[in-house]
TrEMBL record:
Name this polypeptide is given: Potassium channel domain-containing protein
PANTHER family (UniProt xref): POTASSIUM CHANNEL SUBFAMILY K MEMBER 18 (PTHR11003:SF346), POTASSIUM CHANNEL, SUBFAMILY K (PTHR11003)
Keyword Transmembrane applies: yes
Taxonomic path: Eukaryota, Metazoa, Chordata, Craniata, Vertebrata
Ranges of residues in domain Potassium channel: 88-149, 291-357
Gene from which the chain derives: KCNK18
One Gene Ontology cellular component annotation held by this UniProt entry: plasma membrane
Keywords: Ion channel, Ion transport, Membrane, Potassium, Transmembrane, Transmembrane helix, Transport
Protein family membership: Belongs to the two pore domain potassium channel (TC 1.A.1.8) family.
Intracellular or extracellular location(s): Membrane
Transmembrane regions listed in the UniProt entry: 20-43, 95-113, 125-143, 281-299, 311-329, 335-356
Gene Ontology process terms (BP): stabilization of membrane potential
Main location: membrane
Membrane topology value: Multi-pass membrane protein
């Protein structure tokens, strides 16, 4: 009975570690989803149950008793300029549950297209209170998810750089071997001999084969051997380094009963990965435009009035939270299925803006340094 229990313990422990590692991230996302659903229920009840003013406006327009054509034309023009298109829409259709959910998403993402907005006084007050708590919650989710995205980007970029360096090293090594075999003449036909080591060489034997080591004197050789021994000893004594994935999924505090402290420390570190991200700005710009291009290719399939250029423009205005509102979606409910795309896209744009901000700051620092250096040079010349 005991032998059957022991094999399952490591598996259960691993599942527990993974659960608590993603628990804080899942809490933020679930809080945002619940907040959006509650807002959709609230606004659909407040704005969807109001009365339409379409009949009152048409009666006011048709009962105008002006007889002169010029006066009637001017009066009609003034009335048309005062048209509020919310009067001619059915509130129950516009403020359905999905329509209200779409409105809530435009509020806490600060996009605000402008084609759907509260009309009643109570709806406007509730919108201000809803945005007061929804916008910080949305930015918290963006920052938290941005750390995960920044970790993925930095890890992928570093691995690509390492792979590139290995490929270049192999190519340079092959080119050097080819040059050596060509210079040897007759011995080149034998091909490069394979060296088989039956036992590992020590540092002294390995350094004897180094050309730069042969040129050094005996004293310098001993110093280099001693330094290499210290480096190897420190590498052997150092604890093994965990990868990012292992650090993210490891939770040693669970064994000590300090689960809460671990979760609090993970919350306190929100935003650190985005701050420490070092990826070329050109690569991030390419990722942003490629990401928007993917959506611009899919969006015209259900929005027939949009082509690729207009869809690209609409997605860019959305992900940058500008939201002019000049392009109106005929099927905004379908766009809700793009909510995950919008959140990830906003994170990518925020990271791109952060990298662009760093580049601008570095440019200003260089400019101020050049100005200060020039000012110091002029002062020194005047003193002389």
């Amino acid at each position: 009975m005991k032998s059957n229990m022991f094999p399952s313990q490591p598996k259960e422990r691993t599942c527990c570690q993974v659960f608590w590692a993603i628990f804080s991230h899942a809490c933020f996302i679930c809080s945002l989803v619940i907040y959006a659903l509650l807002g959709a229920v609230m606004f659909s009840h407040v704005e969807g149950c109001r009365e339409s003013h379409e009949g009152e406006y048409l009666a006011y327009l048709l009962t105008d008793n002006e007889t002169e054509n010029e006066i009637f034309t001017n009066r009609t023009r003034d009335l048309i300029n005062e048209i509020d298109f919310s009067w001619f829409t059915d509130p129950s259709q516009k403020w359905s549950f999905l329509g209200s959910l779409f409105f809530c998403c435009t509020v806490f993402t600060t996009v605000g297209y402008g084609h759907i907005y509260p009309v009643t006084r109570l709806g406007k007050y509730l919108c201000m209170v809803y945005a007061l708590f929804g916008v910080p919650l949305m930015f918290l989710v963006l920052t938290d998810m941005g750390d995960i995205l920044a970790t993925i980007l930095s890890t992928s970029y570093n691995r690509a750089r390492k792979l590139q360096s290995k490929v270049l090293a192999r190519l340079s090594f092959r080119s050097c071997c080819k040059k050596n075999t060509d210079s040897k003449g007759g011995s080149a036909s034998l091909g490069p001999a394979k060296i088989i080591l039956l036992e590992p060489l020590n540092i002294k034997d390995a350094l004897k084969n180094n050309y730069s080591f042969k040129k050094k004197s005996g004293k310098n050789q001993n110093v280099e051997i001693f330094e290499r021994l210290i480096i190897r000893e420190n590498a052997l004594l150092a604890p093994p380094k965990l990868t990012r994935f292992e650090r993210w999924n490891s939770c040693p505090e669970l064994d000590k009963g300090e689960m809460v402290n671990h979760m609090i420390s993970s919350i306190n570190n929100i935003g650190k990965e985005v701050e420490q991200l070092d990826v070329p700005f050109s690569l991030m710009t390419f990722i942003v435009f490629a990401y928007i291009s993917c959506a611009a290719t899919v969006l015209p399939h259900w929005e027939k009035a949009l082509n690729f250029e207009e869809a690209f423009y609409f997605c860019f205005i959305t992900l940058t939270t500008i939201g002019f509102g000049d392009i109106k979606l005929q099927h905004p409910n379908f766009f809700l299925f793009f909510s995950v795309y919008i959140i990830v896209g906003m994170e990518i744009v925020i990271i791109a803006f952060k990298l662009g901000q760093d580049r601008i700051l570095s440019l200003y620092k260089k400019l101020l340094f050049c100005i200060g250096k020039q000012y110091h040079f002029l002062n020194e010349s005047h003193r002389q």
